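Reviewer comment 2.1 asked that we show a complete input and output for one of the modelled complexes. We chose the magnesium ion case, as it is the one discussed in the main text.
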Amino acid sequence: MEIPLDLKLAVRNVFRNKVRSLITLAAIAFGCISLIIAGGFFEDTFLQMRESVIHSNLGHIQIYKKGYIEKGSAKPFDYMIENPDEIEKLISSIEHVELITPRITFSGLMSTGENTVSIFCQGINPEGEQAISVIETVKGATSGLAIEAGENLSQNDMYNVILGRGLAKAMGSKVGDFIILVCNTVGGALNAMDMKVKGTFFTISKEFDDRAVRMPIAAAQTLLRTDKVQTLVVLVDKTENTDQVKKQLLYLVKDKDLELKPWYELADFYNKTVELYGRQFLVLKFIIAIIVILSIFNTINMSIWERTREIGTIMALGSRRREVLKLFLLEGLVLGILGGLIGIAAGTVLAYLISLVGIPMPPPPGATVGWTAHIKIVPQLLIASFSIALISSLVSSFYPAFKASRLIIADALRHF
Amino acid sequence: MDIVEAKALTKDFHLGKTLIYALKGVDLAVSEREFLAIAGPSGSGKSTLLNLIGCIDLPTSGSIKIDGIDVSALSSDELADLRATKIGFIFQMFNLIPVLSAFENIEYPLLRKKIKHHMRKEKVMDALKNVGLESFATHKPDELSGGQRQRVAIARALISEPKIILADEPTANLDHKTGTAVLEVMKKINEDQGTVFIFSTHDPKVMSMASRIVQLMDGKVIS
Ligand SMILES: Nc1ncnc2c1ncn2[C@@H]1O[C@H](COP(=O)(O)OP(=O)(O)O)[C@@H](O)[C@H]1O
Ligand SMILES: [Mg+2]
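Response of the prediction step:
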């Protein structure tokens, strides 16, 4: 097929002033690279954070007794799931569901004999929680809940607890120590139990680690004098499948007097962070669009100035004004496409190289562990940066091109 | 019928606060097959007159008919189409598009017309032969001499088979011998194809090749 002369003309004109065009291309490519790197970094951060949030505590979907979401915080024991085993069985047959594990959370007091402090207790199924805390989707990330000293709870444990490391430190509790847990039973009476500290742990959340005590769910049920559970935490094989599972769960639990929340409705901190960074990224996109627009504007404007007589010539030869406009828009477009392609290629390679090494990051606010950031290569981001290059090149070449197309031909021809 | 019919043409230019009267009422009729020279000292209005005839500038007052069409009534697009079909231009500085080869420069005016690809190529090759440049098809303008460039420009002006070719000082940037040779090419086309040429010049030798000479002085025709 023959390449249209217009396109040939545009491409050749773009490379007429090589230095200037290369600088322009570099500016556009630089813009794309910044978007790809910054966006890929945010994406990776979000992903790691998301998985961390899910695997340290939330799981993918939490199921409660109907009414718990609205009134559970005031009267947690009024909204308990009575038949957890039956429901577990029902749910485990749903596609993409990895496991279901029960939880009871309640507040109480912990005493070492010398000190007493208010705490946040979790009664859990050790095997289930361990499965939740494994993050496989994020390379190099630590699991959601990590043991610092001693050992994690195991399936045979009964009167054992693990303490958040902040709590353990504040109370001076060590592995092997005994502590006393005091709380209200479901019926409202006071109950206390001796528990042995089996280990200490930390998660992404320092706040959690400063107050949390974990124990086997059976111990919690004994302490609370109940056989019900509060929450059923569902783990999905991949976070991306959450909504699919949620849909089926909704259908299943409809007549079971239950309600549920997916992780993204529970992860407040994550949501706020994503929104904050999302806005910052929008600003970045805007700035980069401006850089691209200014550099292309300058290039096209200069080249139109230099080629005024040529514009007069082609109009004298019978080109309509719109065709002149098209010619220069095409030049802008060629710049945008080339710059965008170079930017995408270079950005992808750079993202890959940076990810090979990884960027060591300090602990995020409220967290205890640092992590290694990578640059995620996101197809949508590549498309977005290419589109920004393309659209801003069109936008910026429009004004000079329009101006060129409005010239009085005789004046343009007199121009030297 | 006259191919060009200009009546009472005036053209003023604003130069800062002063008004320059470049044409002060010019009447001109050009008939078929003419090879017309417009002579006159620098600043007498030759370029201005050619620009108005070529529809690349608008008169302050007066009327122009090209091939019977009153151009004052035409839109910018219609004027462009009129230039594309009826008028060819040859410039003093050749005005070839530097990034295009000789072949492509000549081909350029044809692109807007619905001509089959191979017909177009043939036509352009013929035009190149006509001006004796068939072996320079792929050369870029800066690889051609002044005379060769002007011959490419002539071929480009001719390619859309216009009725009129306007040439503002076509030989001013050429040495005397080359200039005469270029004029001879033009003259031959005028004789063979009947294309009307209107060209401005200072050069008495060039003037002598014209079939008629219009003398301009201070924006008026004096003979
Ligand atoms: N665009 C313009 N602006 C101001 N004055 C102009 C312009 N074009 C031509 N003139 C003036 O009009 C007069 C005629 O110019 P021109 O037609 O170029 O003469 P010639 O081609 O015979 O040398 C001159 O005085 C010139 O300075
Ligand atoms: Mg002149």
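Residues 67-256 of chain A form one domain. We note this here for comparison with the apo prediction described in Section 3.2.
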